[in-house]
Structure formats: structure tokens, C-alpha cells
Amino acid sequence: MPKRSSSVVGREFGNGVRKIIERTGLTQRRVAELLGWHEAKISDLLAGKGGVDEAEVRELLAYCHATVEERRHLIALFLESGEKGWLQFPDDGVPDQVHTFIENEKNAKKITAWSLTLVPGVLQIPEYAHVVTEASPVIEAADVPAVAAARSARAKILNGDREFVFYVHEYALRLQVGGVEVWREQLAHLLRVSVRTYISIRVIPASIGIHAGTSGGFYLLEFHKFPTVVYLESLNCCLFFDDTETVEIYENTVKRLDAVALDEEESRAVIDSILEGF
């Protein structure tokens, strides 16, 4: 596989190999020496940049005594690292809880989210998240409390270490989720967090009609060292893109949303007017 920039699936592969190397007790330099490789080759592999072929990957995994299951999983990731997008089907059917998305979310320097129908996940209060989880057709009733709690825990990333921009359609704010008290508290929470300097909430007013975001919600994750990642999800799967062409399409979509969105003060006024309408 030719050497290239780091990709989402490449980093997933690299992280898996890193854990196997760490288990041997050997340093990356020593493993490289024993295989007759330059240390930079190991570094690029672990960073998800490629620079190795399948035979070399198999040699490395065999030397580090990876299990058969680990080899199958990592080889599959390696082979998929050259594809344009990466589709994941979570075992538990909960796309926004896949560790790949959560890790990328934690490492991003800027997160831009567009939500057409609901309050964005990390802005949801626990009670709202519980009702949303309960309504999912792929989550068993017995699993709702645990999944809802995990979703709420993602709000920990809302700190000044990164920048957040949330575009939310007016209808998502007017959709009553749970009882009136849950709905009111959710809107009040949006007002509280919207004054944080690192969080921008921009409302797309219903009055503009059709717009660039009608095809569905998405996340745009920007990093200090890695290419920007687009994240999409459906009921039971999620999709990552980091190729230039796809990223540009979604960056242009954000620009078009930005052009029709209300500014932060106007957006707060819309949220406040909905609250006053009770």
C-alpha cells in the first residue's frame, strides 16, 4: 500500500497494532530492528499512514503473537484502509457509541454538527437523551438506561479544549421530546451553554424553506494533525469519510448553512421565544 496521509480506518488499524506491540513488552524501535525495518516505518503504520504491504503486516502480527481473531480483524482493517469511505455496523446497533467516533470526537480541535430533527447529541440533557434512546427501533428496552447514560456522558467533551459549532433546524427545537418539563429544560440548557465562548448554536429558521442541509444531519471533525473527517449515521450503521472530495462537499454544505442560519443572538432569541410560548 503506498504511503499516504493518515485516515480514520488507518488510525483504527494502527491503534490495534500498537496494543499488540505493547503486549510484547518490546519498544517500537526494537520491533523494527528485529524485523529489519526502519523505525519510521513502524511509526507511520501506527499513525495510520500506511507505508507497508499486506505481507509485512502479516509478518509483524505473527512476530508479535497476535491471535487468529486479532489478525483477521486487523488485516480486514488494513485492506479497507485504501477505500474511499469506511462503513461500520456496531454489534449493539448504536452508531453514535462506536469507539471510533467517540475517539475522533475527543481528539478533534473543532466539531461542526448539523441536526435537522433533534437537538444534537452532546447538547442533550439526560432526560431528553433517555426519551430519544427509548424511541430507537434498534435498542432493546433493557438496554435503554445504559445507552442513554453513555450518550449523556459524551457531554464531557463540551469544554474549552476545542471549538463547537452546532447548526440546528428550528423544527428540531419545536419538536416536543418527552413531557413539557423535559422539553423546557432542554431548551433552557441550550440557552445556558450557548453563552460559552467555545460553543456556537446557530438556528436554521423554518421560514427559509428548502436549504442545503435537507439531505440529513452530519458531523465535521477537524484535527490538529489529521485530515478532516465527515461522520454520518443511520439507525444501525455509521460511515466515515476523509477523502478530499467528500470533505469538500460537506464543508461547502456548512458554508451554505452558515449563510442562511441566524446569528448566535438571533438564535438565542428563537429558543427564548419558544420557551415563552408555553
Automatic annotation (TrEMBL):
Protein name: Helix-turn-helix domain-containing protein
HTH cro/C1-type domain location: 17-71
Entry-linked InterPro entries: Cro/C1-type_HTH, DUF5753, Lambda_DNA-bd_dom_sf
Superkingdom of the organism of origin: Bacteria
Origin organism lineage: Bacteria, Bacillati, Actinomycetota, Actinomycetes, Pseudonocardiales
